[in-house]
Amino acid sequence: MNDSTQRQPPGLTQALAPAGAPALPLHAVSPAALPALLAGLPPATAQFLHATGFAAKPQECQLLPGPEGLAGAVLGLGLGEAVPGPWSFGALPYLLPAGTAWTLADAVPEVAAQAALGWALGAYRYSRFKAPPRAPAQLALPPGCEAALQQAAAIWRARDLINTPANLLGPAELAAAAQEVAAREGARCEIIAGEELAEGFPALHAVGAGSPRTPRVIVIEWGVADAPLVALCGKGVCFDTGGLDLKPSSAMLRMKKDMGGAALALGLAEMVMQAKLPVRLLLLIGAVENAVSGESFRPLDVLRSRAGLSIEVGNTDAEGRLVLADLLTYAVERSPALVLDFATLTGAARVALGPDLPALFTPDDALAETLLAAGQTTDDPLWRLPLHKGYDSWLDSSVAEMNNVSNRPMAGAIIGALFLKRFVPDAVRWAHVDVYAWNDATRPGRPEGGEAQAIRAALRAISTLFDGVAATHG
């Protein structure tokens, strides 16, 4: 299993040309480089390309004719950065003719890696129940792009989890998916359920008590004892009805994606292990279903948390923060060097930032700068919102140590983050990422459906923070 191609989802493998197979040249060119490309093409081909009006605009693609029919293609990169991002190449698998294979012409390694990542992400379609209308064009993988392919494979698997209907992906199935990743990467995996869960993760257990699909916590550990510990926590609410504070049907429609934080944390953990970063990894996933029954937790219930803090339930639809509260408490008990949590936590974050910008919360300015810079470098952006202390009192309760919501209809994303902050001591380096985990429409490299936002940025940030740390991994 050392060959990276053996780890790829079958659909991704189909988007890659077999080694040594004939492939047509694909020229990726900016407007400034277009004259040089024209000068290097055969005169008839250059004249044809000029006649089409090709101007190397972003996503502009032109097939090139030749004596035997198709001789190649040219992709416009526009006036962007010197090294184009992956989305520049993301439309190509379904834009170029089906059944064709392509190789990048004269691409430097940095561009080749971006092209491989964009191509692989653009080839994704959720095909468990319905085959794509056509096969993708294939890319002959350039040398040195194994890391890009590993990341793409992890993102494919995360997208598949988010896209899977909730009747087929409950807490047990989410746990099984995590166990598969752990087994593939040689990591240790433990599933906590039943009485042990009720005692050790009481707030999380309360959220899942209303469903016949019993809740569980997935614990994956990887690495060696002397490496710095990075803890990843993921909200795995496999479906969210809102509980007794029932969502309207329009708000419930996409709630199969409410386990997106868990899918992202699992995908990031897979990337970290594949890259063999010099860290010790702790992955925690709270897998629950927020359902309605006689066992459901109720508005104004007071719950116990793993941290010992009492929580009044102001709204049963603010359940994800209850799940994360117990996970964060478990994580900080292990004295981590870094804690990152991922959750589809609030609609308020989407109102503030839209679907493409996950909201980043952290009290650590240096950590924020590292994550934001990593997001820019990887074309996987985040946007920082404040943990405004002035709003902390909005979580006060008259009967418990805190409420899980504010009674004010404002600053919902900040309030959710402030709630989580109560379970993370000031001395612990921590960041919370509030994600949408979904593409509302298909764009190059980002098909409609589940999306693994922020995890390529997080991988780069972890690598940056722990670069040079000496550790040996088994």
From TrEMBL:
The keyword Magnesium does not apply. CDD domains: Peptidase_M17. PANTHER family: LEUCINE AMINOPEPTIDASE-RELATED, PEPTIDASE B. Residues 315-322 form the Cytosol aminopeptidase domain. The keyword NADP does not apply. It comes from the Bacteria. Transmembrane segments: none annotated. This is Leucyl aminopeptidase family protein. InterPro entries: Leucine_aapep/pepB, Macro_dom-like, Peptidase_M17_C, Peptidase_M17_N_1. It holds the Pfam family Peptidase_M17_N_1. Keywords: Aminopeptidase, Hydrolase, Manganese, Protease.
